[in-house]
Design brief:
This protein is about 25% helix and about 20% strand. By secondary structure, the protein is an alpha/beta fold. It has one domain: TIM Barrel (Alpha-Beta Barrel), CATH 3.20.20.80.
């Protein structure tokens, strides 16, 4: 799916989001959410399969207390969103959600291409909110060769100029086969991803961009399922990561534990967990609201979850599902109830 919708160089809609089919995976008993590749059309990948039975939740005995420059408080979760609502500016969308929920976003996510100029400020950002810059990746050779060093240094200086803590989510969902920065698209080279991440991290350090908090964010499951494409194989190392993120959507009736237990069990005792992208298909009636409540209940039981960021939009090109949280009164009511829980008072 192509999605080159821009305004002042910023990706106002999530470029190449392309949610699509569920594909079976071996041994582990999970199912993969297949995203549309660059050369596919939406109609080519709309198939469904039943979601697997959810595994029992395992709460780590210890909970990490880091988070870098964006503080993590055990048992408290920052609530945020990627907001792009039809007919509204970002600032207007932020104001609408505040009227509906009675509170500000705590994280506001924005998307940029690798070659874009990163922002020195984010429009509509509430005073006490954290910007999360999701910065698209590129082929690993563009980074490991040193070819992009100047571009990366400029990006570091731009984020440093924000003068406040900034979450940086570079090359998300690198364990999928739908983005050019995934290991699959780079000769199954998981080491190349790690080298790229560490090189960018080092350049930011050289530029003094110490206000940046690093968010490493795979998809909830790997496509394809191979040893070189696991969480562990693609993890840059504790020294280079402040938050462990994850993308997970209720596309085919997946329960929150199906989507988020694996990443939580793998990293929850070492790093704070951020659900960086989440949304639910509206199947009519109270189904969407019920799923939002299930998610809230799951987060209540998992103290290492320090942030939840909804994909709150109805403008994504080429995809019929409207991800905004107020597609019907019931879903909005469930979201407002979630927002008012003490668990989400981070």
């Amino acid at each position: 799916m192509k999605g080159a919708h821009r305004a002042r160089s910023r990706l106002t809609r999530r470029h190449l989001f392309g949610l699509a089919a569920v594909v079976a995976v071996p041994a582990a008993g999970a199912y993969g959410i297949q995203r549309l590749r660059d050369d596919q059309k939406p109609a080519e990948a709309h198939t469904e399969a039943a979601a697997p039975a959810a595994s029992a939740s395992v709460v780590p005995k210890a909970v990490a207390t880091s988070g870098g420059t964006v503080p993590f408080r055990s048992g408290k979760a920052l609530l945020g969103a990627y907001l792009d609502l039809s007919g509204l500016t970002q600032a207007q969308a932020v104001a609408l959600r505040k009227r509906q929920t009675g509170r500000d976003e705590r994280i506001l996510q924005v998307f940029f291409d690798f070659y874009d100029t990163l922002p020195t400020q984010v429009a509509g950002l509430p005073e006490h909110a954290f910007p999360m810059v999701s910065w698209r990746g590129t082929a690993y050779s563009e980074i490991t060769s040193g070819k992009s060093d100047d571009l990366i240094a400029k990006a570091a200086r731009r984020l440093k100029a924000q003068g406040r803590p900034v979450l940086l989510r570079w090359a998300w969902e690198m364990n999928g086969d739908w983005y050019k920065w995934g290991a699959y698209r780079n000769g199954n080279d998981n080491k190349g991803f790690v080298q790229s991440w560490r090189r960018i991290h080092g350049i930011f350090a050289d530029e003094g961009a110490d206000n940046v908090s690093w968010v490493w964010s795979p998809n909830w499951n790997s496509v394809p399922v191979r040893e070189w494409n696991t969480y562990e194989a693609l993890y840059p190392g504790d020294k280079y990561v402040d938050w462990v993120g994850v993308s997970g959507y209720n596309l085919h009736k997946e329960k929150p534990e199906t989507l988020f237990d694996p990443i939580y069990e793998a990293f929850g005792a070492r790093k704070p967990i951020m659900i960086c992208e989440v949304g639910a298909v509206d199947r009519g009636g109270s189904t969407k609201g019920e799923w939002i409540t299930l998610l809230a209940d799951w987060v209540e039981k998992h103290p290492a979850v320090g942030a939840v960021v909804f994909f709150d939009t109805d403008t994504h090109p080429g995809y019929d599902e409207k991800w905004r949280i107020d597609t019907n009164p019931d879903s909005l009511a469930a979201y407002v109830a979630l927002a008012k829980r003490a668990r989400f008072s981070g």
